Amino acid sequence: MNCFTHALPYLDRPHFMVGCCVPDWLSAVDRKCRVRERSAKEFIGDPDPLLAAVAQGVVQHHEDDHWFHQTEAFATLNMQFSVEIRDILKGESGFRAGFLGHIIVELLLDAFLIEQFPGQLEVHYDRVAQVSPHRLQEKINRFATRPTQNLVYYIERYLDIRFLFDYLDDSRLLFRLNNVMKRVKLESLDDRILTWIPSARHRVYQRAADLLCDYPLKFD
């Protein structure tokens, strides 16, 4: 799952919701800093309600990822996409095709839910803006594998750029994918991938119910 899919069921609980997003945010801005499920569980009953809510959200993130990545639909699409991307990239083997096959399922699932629940992405951003990024970073550093000083900056950029809207457009999605490629030091993708994205989008949308078989929200 990606950020919006994790967050959508919990828009009425801002601190819990941002806790659901934090593992993905840290993977983007501070890859050496992790928030493990086991460490977060130590704080889910903390007397500090903000810390407890954030920790509960982190635990929820890991629980969601656990069942999501074990679905047949995710395994099938991930494999199909990785093979197709490798073929598009002229038989390239190695990490890039597999990595892209994984993340594009998740980003397109975000796009599906953005379309399914009109206006809720705007609500998500409004709720994130209600949470102090400095206080959130302070709480996360209570149980992270190492302290981070980058989360405040990332949240401010997240609210400013609002890049999740870009997942609805194939060209903008490719732009965002190349940002990810740059961040993980992989070669950028060209327009050969752009011509393939509509097929990938159709298949993710078609199998959304299977991908989200244990999801708490119902959709068409």
Question: What's the topology here?
Answer:
Elements (H helix, E strand, L loop, with lengths): L2 H5 L6 H16 L7 H5 L7 H20 L3 H17 L6 H22 L3 H10 L3 H8 L10 H11 L8 H14 L7 H4 L2 H10 L1 H4 L9
Largest sheet: none
Radius of gyration: 17 Å
Low-pLDDT runs of 5+ residues are none
Overall 3D geometry?
globular
Number of strands: 0
Number of helices: 13
- Order of SSEs: HHHHHHHHHHHHH
How confident is the prediction overall: mean pLDDT? 95
Helix content: 55-70%
Structure explained in plain terms:
This protein has 220 residues and is an all-alpha fold. It has one domain (3-211). Helix content is 66%, strand content 0%. α6 packs across α12 (197-206).
Notable characteristics:
13 helices, 220 residues, mainly alpha
Outline of this structure?
By secondary structure, the chain is an all-alpha fold. It contains 13 helices and no strands. The protein has one domain.
